[in-house]
Amino acid sequence: MKKVLTLTLAVVAVIAWTLPASALENEFGGYWRTRFFTQQQFSGDNRDESGDKSQVDTRTRLYYTAKINDNLKFVNKFEFDAVWGDDELGDVGADGKVFEIKNSYVDWTMGSLNAKVGIQGFLANRGFSIDDDASGAKLIYTVADGIYLPFSWYRVDEGYDQDNGDDTDLSDLNDGDLDVLTLAPLFQLNKNIKINPTYMYMHSDDAWELEFGNGTQLEDAEFSDVDVHTLALNMDASFTMGSIWFTGAFQTGEMEVDGNDQDVEAYLVALGGEMDMEAMNLMAGDVHGQFFYASGDDDADDDDIEQWLSWPGASYYWSEIMGYGIFDFQASNNSPADGISNIWAVNLGATVKPMDKLKVAFDVWYANLAEDIIVADGTKQDELGTELDLVITYEVVQNLNLDLVGAYLFAGDATTENSPDDANPYEIGARLSLSF
User: Fold this and answer.
1) What Å distances lie between residue 34 and 28, 91, 119, 163, 266, CA to CA?
2) Which of 70, 227, 273, 318 is the most exposed place for a label (fewest CB within 10 A)?
3) Residue 128 in contact with residue 316, Cβ under 8 Å?
């Protein structure tokens, strides 16, 4: 791993040394956090301690951008993660063996066209489709002021990166490639209204390692001939008193699952907004809420896939216990966490700012599975429960924030699985963070 770090730094140094001093601008930034937390009874069963976890961890991200000229940049983001006491980095001696490259790409502009090629972040449909780093390319064409035409491609899986034994026909390895193409025009009608229709196409002739979010009927299936289309509409509007947003999406297409042809027909709807209390001549803060529904499958034995497919990289954080939140180590039993699928949830909350450096947020969440699941006692259940979240944020010094978190889930039968020793999950923790 040290060789990788040395090589990476050497490449950066060579670029810097081979350019005239006047031509290169170095931009540095980063993010750091340390979290102290305990998560208890996330299994929903007092007899099962697999959901009990207490941990301290640290994450460091370092950003380096070489601005070579006004039209060309070389962007890099590095990451180091350590669980305190873990022998990878966090133990006594602390000789780290963990080095991660989050981003490494070139960014250049030619007139109205901007291009980014390499390992970079991808976002579509607020994260319901993807919000993660991947290897690929983006092209963004500025049609006119406020009208943009972005196109992207990223590779989910490389067919040649497989271990299928010595008898593998190398001519078929490309069939395992899994790719996503996205066209997402953005129309900024004015400074307050944005409309973003999105089309995504996922394709593979033989998707050997396709994985879906939790609770999907396809978790352990084998795939081939993946041709799935996602059509979505995203809208955002802000006004003096607050803001609103909406996402509606539909998945259609075909997949061959375990040798059987399956038609995909799934959908997702999400909306939310907030009201600015200060704009209403009240205290500083807001009242906010949201709702989302991702379809489930009412019959797993038919030839239709009706459950919203949470593709690799999909990530939408919501509540603290059921939806990952600040301490995204695990989610409560049978919740899809950030891979939204087969679920509906509603939220109402408020944020107040008693002083400049202090913010207090309180949220209530109720979540249910869109379609029943069969739990441990053999019954069908769908209620995940009602969750209460409290997050207090204080600016210790400029740029250094402290978050104090408390969350409690009044677990439903889908979380506890109707156990006679059912338990309500809870979470307590703190996070120190800074960015620069």
Assistant:
1) 21, 15, 26, 37, 39
2) 70
3) yes
Q: Are the C-beta atoms of 119 and 21 separated by less than 8 Å?
A: no
Tokens of 79: 């990451």
Cα separation, 205 vs 177, whole angstroms: 7
DSSP 45-102: BTT-GGG-EEEEEEEEEEEEEEEEETTEEEEEEEEEEEETT-TTTTSTT------EEE
Q: Half-sphere exposure of residue 30, counting CA atoms within 13 Å on the CB side?
A: 12
Q: CA 137 to CA 107: how far, in whole Å?
A: 10
The amino acid occupying position 231 is L
Evaluate whether 418 touches 404 at the Cβ level (below 8 Å). Answer: no
Residue-by-residue pLDDT tens, the chain, 436 positions: 444 444 555 555 555 555 555 568 999 999 999 999 999 999 999 999 999 999 999 999 999 999 999 999 999 999 999 999 988 887 787 777 788 999 999 999 999 999 999 999 999 999 999 999 999 999 999 999 999 999 999 999 888 766 554 455 556 677 888 999 999 999 999 999 999 999 999 999 887 767 665 555 566 677 788 999 999 999 999 999 999 999 999 999 999 888 889 999 999 999 999 999 888 778 889 999 999 999 999 877 788 899 999 989 999 999 999 999 999 999 999 999 999 999 999 999 999 999 999 999 999 999 999 999 999 889 999 999 999 999 999 999 999 999 999 999 999 999 999 888 999 999 999 999 999 9
Contact yes or no for 336/381 (Cβ under 8 A): no
The burial class, CB within 10 Å (0-12 / 13-18 / 19+), for 355 is exposed
DSSP for residue 6: H
In the numeric block, which tokens belong to residue 138?
């983006």
Instruction: Note whether 35 and 326 are within 8 A (CB).
Output: yes
Residues 6+ apart with CB under 8 A from 154: 122, 130, 134, 135, 136, 137, 179, 180
Distance separating alpha carbons of residues 77 and 87, to the nearest angstrom: 24
- How many helices (H) and strands (E) the chain has is answered by 2, 20
Would you say 288 and 272 are in contact if contact means Cβ atoms under 8 Å apart?
yes
Rounded distance between C-alpha atoms, residue 178 and residue 130, angstroms? 15
Please give the distance of CA 2 from its chain centroid, rounded to a whole number. Answer: 29
- 21 φ, ψ to 5°? -55, -35
User: pTM score, two decimals?
Assistant: 0.90
- Decide: 160 and 347 in contact? Cβ < 8 Å: no
